[in-house]
Specification:
By secondary structure, this protein is mainly alpha-helical. The protein contains 2 helices and no strands. Helix 1 runs antiparallel to helix 2. It starts with a helix and ends with a helix.
Length: about 150
């Protein structure tokens, strides 16, 4: 009779152990699935960050291209005005020397103004380029810091 009770308890303990092992197995599977989803989310976040930075870079390039187009238009108009002044001076050279001299003076002032504008634009563009490179460097350093602090 003692063995009969012992067998019942052994069977109950075995069933309990089997139940607990099943629960542990399900828990391990759930933790593993969560870990995989977490890793996927990290990858998606990195891809989103990459795409965002690419979009920002493309937007910046488009803005620079638009600024360059505006610059070329302005330079073209200034050069056309300079050419007109020189043509006027050339026509009046023998007819009206005073008018030719005045036109040459205007052309000289226009060319000096044009050269100053070009120098300022080149200077601004080089400063923007240095600032852009520095901000990209700081952004990459911040990203490295954030990624290292997560883990």
């Amino acid at each position: 009779m003692f063995y009969r009770y012992q067998a019942k308890y052994m069977l109950a303990v075995l069933l309990l152990v089997a139940f607990l092992l099943t629960l542990i197995w399900q828990l391990v599977n759930a933790v593993h699935a969560n870990y995989q989803k977490h890793c996927q989310l990290i990858l998606f976040e990195q891809q989103i960050n990459l795409y965002t930075s690419q979009i920002l870079n493309m937007t910046e390039i488009q803005e620079k291209n638009q600024n360059l187009i505006n610059l070329y238009n302005a330079l073209g108009q200034s050069i056309a005005a300079l050419n007109i002044q020189l043509q006027v001076a050339q026509k009046y050279w023998f007819i009206n020397p005073e008018q030719a001299h005045e036109s040459l003076t205007d052309a000289s002032q226009l060319s000096a103004s044009l050269m100053y504008e070009v120098r300022q634009i080149v200077k601004e563009m080089s400063v923007e380029q240095v600032i852009g490179e520095n901000s990209k460097c700081y952004a990459s350093q911040a990203e490295i810091y954030l990624l290292s602090s997560k883990y």
